[in-house]
Amino acid sequence: MSGKWFDELEIGQLFQHPIRRTLTETDNILFTSMTHNPAQLHLDAEYCKNETEFGRPLINSYFTLGLVVGISVGDTTLGTAVANLGTDKVRFPAPLFPGDTIRVETEVKALRESKSRPTQGIVTFEHRAYNQRDELVCICQRTGLQHKNPST
Q: What DSSP element (H or E) covers 112?
């Protein structure tokens, strides 16, 4: 187990996740196809070259969101999470393209004891992802139910 127990977390605590990920065209095509998203913006290079301001396909933002949360799990919730309660305030301030590399950081924004589950607490994380030029490309808040340390 490498995640943190609820009682090991503090508001303002910052995790700089060591995993970085270069996004590929294959990632984008597979995810977009598996989720039945036919948007030309992710799949059609000629359309993007001729009809968009970007000139090339964009990485699917929902792939980005899933990857950002996934990168955070090992340091924050692996083995200590009860359930994901929701994701809020999701924004993608800059586009991502195949070949971009992201890094992720997570900040603990809120903590509160569970009223109905004395062995658990509710935590709100803010996940932020940056590309290789340190541009913010994704930000979201994720709230989860987290176990407290059973040995305390």
A: strand 101-113
Cβ atoms 82, 144 nearer than 8 A: yes
Q: What is the pTM of this model?
A: 0.93
Q: Give me the phi and psi of 2, to 5 degrees please.
A: -120, -5
Over residues 38-85, the pLDDT tens digits come to: 899 999 999 999 999 999 999 999 999 999 999 999 999 999 999 999
> Do the beta carbons of residue 108 and residue 127 sit within 8 Å?
no
126 has pLDDT over 70? yes
User: Dihedral of the CA atoms 29, 31, 37, 39 (nearest 10)?
Assistant: -40
Contact between residue 90 and residue 121 where contact means Cβ atoms under 8 Å apart: no
Helix (H, G, I), strand (E, B) or coil at 24: coil
Task: Specify the DSSP class assigned to residue 18.
Answer: S
Q: How many CB atoms lie within 10 A of CB 112?
A: 10
Where do the domains of the chain lie, and which CATH numbers do they carry? 6-147 (3.10.129.10)
Report the C-alpha gap between 103 and 134 in whole angstroms: 9
The Cβ of residue 40 has, within 10 Å, a number of other Cβ atoms equal to 13
